[in-house]
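# nightly structure sweep
# worker-07 picked up a monomer target from the shared queue
# config: single-sequence mode, recycle default, output format = structure tokens
# input follows
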Amino acid sequence: MSKGKLIVISAPSGSGKTTIAKAVMAKYPTIEFSISATTRAMRQGESEGVDYFFLKREEFEARIQRGMLVEWEEIYGNLYGTLKSEVDRALSQGHVMLFDIDVKGGLSIKRHYPEALLIFIRPPSFEILKDRLTKRNTEDPAALERRLARVPMELELGMQFDHQVVNDELNKATTEVEALIRNHTELVPINS
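# output follows
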């Protein structure tokens, strides 16, 4: 059995990374999605091991101390991270695992697994990104400002990724990401 592959898609909020990741997974159903661990409360409709691995803060912190997380970060008061055991399981089973995570987490995965493919989705401009987030209307003005304050850091760190894809047109950006993944993994899309 061949060794698995890791693909990381990162971007500032509102850049379309989750939409692109879902489109890729629909076309390549053998890709396994990386499920993160979190300390945030489970929301209605979410399931353990499907949406997240929900951990108590003490348990999450103990796993950090024992080196059981590939990457982790505290975002808005909650801890989020990737369990090393899940990544190693996917690789040993020959799976292709896709990560939809923040830019710092992506770079941490690259440090632990240098063969990982890192794709950064860039917005066409800061103004367009701000407009997308505002129209999404999913958070209060303070939360929106916190997200926007992270953008310069995310854009700078994104320059360290293997590839940059500008999402000025969703179908074009998705096609570019699919091509990068095919070249890295030799996966064949359904209906091809």
